Amino acid sequence: MISENNLILDHQQTLNKIKRIAYEVYEQNFEEEEIIFAGIHDTGYVFAELLSIEFDKIAPIKSKLIKLVLDKVSPTQSDVEISENGIDFTNKVIIIADDVLSTGKTIAYSLRPFLKIPVKKIQVAVIVDRNLKSFPVEANFVGYELSTTVNQHIEVVLNKDRPLGIYLL
Q1: CB 96, CB 40: distance < 8 Å
Q2: Which of 92, 93, 94, 98 lies 20 to 30 Å from 31, alpha-carbon distance?
Q3: What is the DSSP letter of 96?
Q4: pTM for this structure?
């Protein structure tokens, strides 16, 4: 259950983390013509959307937002669906965005559609990195790093119905 006692980052702190990540993306990719923000469905996509809005405020670089949908429980059983067809990823920078990086499994499997294309660079952005890696996945852009136990859960609230925030459950 989410309560103020479980709050790690409040609304403004969460927005500040997203804004800082947008600046870091720009700093590392300032010479690019276009950046694609690929948010992993559900909260990862909302994070990518907020990140691309902040990025567009500061960078003269063209950006595109897409959604990646995959079965997070059984990622080997289904393909990764991309929300928009016909996008040319060739020689582009792709920022895979998710809310929490725990084991790295979701991000590892979300790379599948891009491994068949000669992209320029794939980077990973997350709001929270829990440091519980089972897969060789590291985030390039991290809002908040938090070592947790396997039994603990991180809830990232980014929807408009409730105040933004990050909670430890």
Answers
A1: yes
A2: 98
A3: E
A4: 0.93
